[in-house]
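Posted in: Structural Biology > Protein-Ligand Complexes

Title: Requesting predicted complex, zinc ion in pocket

I'd be grateful if someone could produce the 3D structure tokens for the following input. Sequence and ligand are given below.
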Amino acid sequence: MTEGIDRQLPSPAPAVVPETEPFWAATAEGRLLLPRCAACATVIWYPKGICPECGSLDIGWVEASGEGEVYTFTVSRRGEGAYLDAGPFVLAYVELDEGPRVMTNIVGCSPESVRIGLRVRAVFDDTGQGSALVRFAPVER
Amino acid sequence: MSIRGQAFIAGAYEHPRRKIPDRSVAQIHAEVAVGALADAGLSFSDVDAYFTVDQTGLGAITLAEYLGLKVSYIDSTLTGGSSYLVHVGHAAAAIAAGKCNVALITLGGHVRPAPGVGRAPGVGTPHGPFEEVYGVTTVNNYALAARRHMYEFGTTSEQLAEVKVAASHHAQYNPDALLPNVVTVEEVLASPLVADPLHRLDSCVMTDGGGALVVVSPAVAKTLDRTCVKVLGQGEAPKHTMNGRVDVTYTGAVWSGPMAFAEAGVTVADVDYASIYDSFTITVIETIEDLGFCEKGRGGDFVLDGGLISPTGRLPFNTDGGGLCNNHPVNQGGMTKVIEAVRQLRGEARPEVQVPDCEIALAHGSGGRISSRMGSSTLVLGREDA
Ligand SMILES: [Zn+2]
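-- Reply #1 --
Done. Output follows.
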């Protein structure tokens, strides 16, 4: 089955608040920013205005490599909300090379070819509202 | 201060219906409240504490008014499906502290539909925008855990299916069960994949319904004719994504279990019966490992050969048919977990599934979603003379 390789998934716009605006603005430019604590240098996920390791409110941003590997995944066959009629899609956690495991979709390959440990790189799907969803596609070998 | 022996469950009632379109949510609460108080031999005027999750925006107050309660203690803690185990623990602590003597706990409502098209993803929570835009649902979230558990420990779909098979064996004796038919491993595997590796039959039922409990002080328990159940210990623990280091292979039971066992002064070897939250088959596998019934990663082996089937299995579980086959009212199965544990300790489970001489029972709830954020609670109960 090759369905899913070129298929475009729904890209609903996320709710953006001032705390997370730099993250989403960067995605619209095709860049993946990660929050990092200015006090203890912990990389933070999900983006938020406090360091959950040390409690500091002084949070900066660093640009991520955009690469990582699949920690776990599923081929989801029954969507809800914007995904109601999306057909089968891959929901996954990708462990970024910077550490955090982020929820995402795996695209650019057939769902059947996804494996735990697969090397992937970020791709950015425009929501049309000043943000892009950060999905991941296999790194070409 | 420990709650051990400081409170007793005197009344328990499960709404017999699974589809209740002709009742309002508040009416269902009223029906189960009446049922549990009648079971205990108490009346509304005896109730001085009220526990329910917030369904109205004003905590327990809306329903306290509807029921006509005059109480001096309220609690609307919400930890998802585990809320009602937390409520029993909190009620026992409040009774032990002298704040109240008769606590009523109610659950009622209709099945919650999935969100429709047009709902803005992630509004209202800090994490939502980073998850909901990717199409996460309850079932595909649990599937993420099942996949990783298989990868790390070699767990198989056949082993997951055994959990459903055991639940169905019990449900056949429950005339109120939504799904009373015994199913086989093959039938589970042949049911449609919803989010692989989870099939439709790896999932719990979705039902209207409700239930209620009455928790009382030792002094009140002494005055009642009804057989009471002793509260021995309780633990509660949220588990979340831990700043991007989410590990989907274990649950908050790794923390709530030891707390409850320590307070109760018992170990897994003492447990005669267990109600284990069964939103999905993987929930049971991970939970029995985390509670210490088997080594981490061996849950799949533990459930083989009828390991969960009462009364002959290694760990008789969910003898009402559980959330997988009997009832999962309002997507919150913690209430029915406690109720079946109470039936077992009273010797009032269905005869075919009653554990002989059941002295110590455990009930465990898992709220929320196993692969992101969840609320776990473990309750250890004993016979009145335990
Ligand atoms: Zn820090």
